[in-house]
Design a protein that fits this description.
heterodimer; A: mainly alpha; MetI-like fold; 14 helices; 3% strand; flat; B: alpha/beta; D-Maltodextrin-Binding Protein, domain 2; 4-stranded mixed β-sheet; 19 helices; MetI-like (chain A); transmembrane (chain A)
């Protein structure tokens, strides 16, 4: 018995390190095919990041090129001790958390609708749901701006019957109302993206498991909680990670609707205004580097703490 | 067979690809050959958006050049701040296509200080400043030297509804003060048309209020960033804050005040609640067009009067805002001499007159107002000319952008302005930003 077990185990142990000639050739071909793209990606992403890190160590204004001088980490010191940075970080986190949570719920509901829809209308339904995502962000930001603006908007007239909305309500004059419109437009625009990711996750849940649960007498809610959701974990976490990173870099909506007025400024707008508006390349680069570190942190937390398995979404193999 | 098909398809794709590359290369070669041919040099004129007036002048001057040069226009973004961003980036990069640029006066020192602008030849400096309103010359000058050429000047005047002024008992033939306008709006339950948005217009308004009171936003404009002294924390700054705060907190600017720009002010002024408005000349042709289109009643236009910008203090003359456009030449342009030759054509008084009549932008040269067509199309031309003579430019400093953005952040929304604290806190904030101690 023991001999049989030994012989049965052996090939399994040895199979891992030894690659067949075919596998080796495929691996080589893979590197040859992907290599140039990898090098180019490294150049176009690593170079600007390193340049930004280098520039952030200088006091350098584009319109005063002769006045450029090394200041070390002083720019970072100014940024991290300024309440503007922390206020913008909080606003960015608020937008990120609220949009991701609401989109996750709405997106899941839409995914369920798409998943359960009759085959005949499935295509039309998916197209209809995808429409907002297909619209260019700047265009959708302008559309929302003009809809809510007190001078050109129709929202105040149409919804004057809703408590709190009157013809005199200036949505972009206060923090609460401005941020609500910005968040609503972001949710409207990107919920389809999250719902598509969740739909692919739903499709990966083995049908036999849900059937078995139903046969065992599980209610719909129990099937959802104990079978569907655990099997979709990878898809959900990937959706959350992608959307969180995307939401953290929000720019267009805020730029168009308030341009940061009423304390609605977000970090990417701060980086833009410092680098492009003020032409302060040194300080602007420092803001951009800090923004980049924040994005890395979010990705790190998601992957390590919440254990997002990016490889798990390759198609359920 | 299948392999053969694949090979054929791949081969066809390659051939098509090579053909496409060849065609594109050939077109590129032809285009290069054309641009490098012996034709007249092309001067690029970066223009701010208008109703086609600058393009028409470019066409006219190209024809008058008799083949010496061709002027092509290139459109800049809508707002002045975005125009500055694009121009500064291109100039800093040494773009040789910056032949002629339409420049907003407050941003000129920032471009002149690092030597981004080509010096104005003496003869053109002399000819282009004759009979030109002083404010426009001041805006074109940096450190006592003319660095750009005045093209057109702009100013705000006080527009009023005759019926409201009459009901409020105001004699509009005499100078009026902000306090009188506030009282009139209060008593008649009407709105004042001012620009309260967090935008450049807030700096324009504040500068006019402080200058009208005899003060100045920047005391030593030519100083370095660390040594720049501001005059916001002053009696004039406090009075300006009082006016802005009263209009904001009492709702006299209407519910749209925190986001109100020049266009929104005009719409408010045309409405039932309209009373008084400070705004540029563009509103007159805009209202005429609205009447023609049927979106505005002629009776509203008949009820409109105009006067010089309101005073802060009854005994001190007003200092209306000064805007407009000057023309500059990039230091790295390949055709500096030709560009200045073209500019001397562009700023001819007859071109300025035509530009005023067709586009509503007032001339910088006084004689351009004498044309009969000006008085016919702009019955308020005399008021505009008087205003231009007393108008006050915004601070001319290379750090204007920081000063202006700092003001926009600390003086908006108008309802949050506190005469007791805003001038001092704003001054401290901008000073720290200029010293590199704070983010903006």
């Amino acid at each position: 018995m023991s001999t049989t077990t030994e012989t049965a185990r052996k090939p399994v142990r040895e199979a891992r390190p030894v690659k067949s000639d075919r596998a080796k050739a495929e691996s080589r071909l893979g590197w040859l095919l992907a290599g140039p793209a990898f090098v180019i990606m490294l150049l176009v992403t690593a170079y600007p990041i390193l340049q930004a890190v280098y520039d952030s160590l200088f006091s350098y204004r584009l319109t005063a090129p002769d006045d450029r001088h090394f200041v070390g980490l002083a720019n970072y010191g100014v940024i991290l001790t300024d309440w503007v940075w922390w206020r913008d970080l909080l606003v960015t986190l608020l937008v990120t958390v609220v949009t991701v949570v609401v989109e996750l719920i709405l997106g899941f509901a839409l995914a369920l609708v798409m998943h359960g829809a009759l085959k005949s209308i499935r295509g039309i339904l998916r197209t209809a749901i995808l429409v907002p995502y297909g619209i260019i962000t700047v265009v959708s930001a302008f559309a929302w701006y003009y809809a809510f603006d007190i001078n050109s908007g129709f929202v105040n007239q149409w919804f004057s019957w809703v408590p709190g909305i009157s013809p005199d309500l200036n949505w972009f004059a206060h923090f609460e109302t401005s941020i609500a419109v910005i968040i609503a437009s972001e949710i409207w625009k990107t919920t389809p993206f999250i719902s598509l990711l969740l739909l692919s996750g739903l499709a990966q849940v083995p049908g036999e498991l849900t059937e078995a649960a139903k046969v065992d007498g599980a209610t719909r809610w129990e099937v959802m909680r104990k079978v569907t959701l655990p099997n979709m974990k990878a898809a959900i976490m990937v959706a959350v990670l992608f959307r969180a990173l995307d939401a953290f870099r929000i720019f267009d909506n805020v730029f168009i609707m308030t341009n940061g007025a009423n304390s609605t400024e977000v970090l990417s707008l701060l980086a833009y205004r410092t680098s492009i508006g003020r032409l302060e390349i040194g300080m602007g680069s420092a803001v951009s580097v800090l923004l980049f570190i924040c994005v890395l942190l979010i990705a790190f937390i998601a992957i390590k703490v919440f254990k997002v398995d990016l490889a798990g979404t390759r198609g359920g193999n | 067979m299948a392999d053969q098909k694949v090979t054929q398809t791949v081969g066809r794709r390659w051939r098509n690809g090579i053909k496409a590359v060849a065609v594109v290369s050939a077109l590129g070669f032809v285009a290069t050959a054309c641009s490098g041919s012996s034709g007249p040099p092309t001067l690029t004129w970066y223009i701010n958006p208008d109703d086609g007036g600058q393009a028409a002048i470019a066409q006219k001057c190209t024809e008058q050049a008799n083949g010496a040069y061709t002027i092509e226009t290139s459109l800049l973004p809508n707002d002045a701040a975005s125009q500055r961003e694009q121009l500064a980036r291109r100039l800093a990069a040494g773009d040789s296509s910056m032949d002629i640029m339409s420049l907003d006066p407050p941003y000129i020192p920032e471009l002149a200080e690092p030597g981004f602008l080509a010096p104005v030849p003496d003869d053109i400096a002399q000819s282009s400043t004759q009979d030109v309103v002083q404010g426009a010359i001041d805006g074109a000058t940096w450190k006592g030297e003319l660095v750009t050429v005045p093209f057109w000047a702009n100013t705000q005047i006080l527009w009023y509804r005759k019926s409201v002024a009459e009901a409020a008992g105001l004699d509009m033939t005499q100078p009026v003060t902000w306090d009188q306008l506030i009282e009139a709006a209060r008593s008649q339950d009407k709105y004042l048309g001012v620009q309260g948005a967090r935008a450049e217009s807030m700096t324009v308004w504040l500068n006019a209020l402080i200058a009208s009171g005899g003060g100045e936003i920047v005391v030593n404009p030519e100083a370095s960033a660390e040594e720049l002294q501001l005059g916001l924390d002053s009696p004039q700054g406090e009075k300006a804050a009082e006016i802005i705060s009263t209009i904001g907190t009492e709702g006299l600017g209407g519910p749209g005040l925190p986001t109100m720009d020049e266009n929104a002010s005009m719409e408010l002024f045309q409405g039932d609640q309209g009373s008084f408005m400070v705004n540029y000349n563009f509103v007159w042709p805009a209202m005429q067009s609205a009447v023609e289109e049927g979106s505005l009643d002629q009776s509203v236009v008949d009820d409109i009067g105009w006067a010089v910008f309101p005073r802060v203090d009854a005994d001190t003359e007003a200092a209306p805002p000064l805007g407009g456009i000057n023309l500059g030449v990039g230091a790295d342009s390949d055709h500096v001499d030709l560009a200045y030759e073209a500019i001397s054509c562009i700023v001819q008084p007859e071109n300025q007159t035509e530009y005023f009549v067709t586009n509503g932008n007032a001339p910088a040269v006084r004689s351009a107002f004498d044309d009969p067509s000006v008085a016919q199309d702009f019955p308020m031309a005399t008021t505009i000319r008087e205003s231009l003579d007393i108008a006050a430019p915004r601070p001319q400093t290379p750090y204007y952008n920081e000063v202006s953005t700092g003001i926009q952040q600390t003086w908006t929304p108008p309802s949050a302005v506190d005469p007791a604290s805003t001038p001092a806190s704003s001054q401290q904030f901008i000073t720290e930003v200029l010293r590199g101690e704070r983010l903006l």
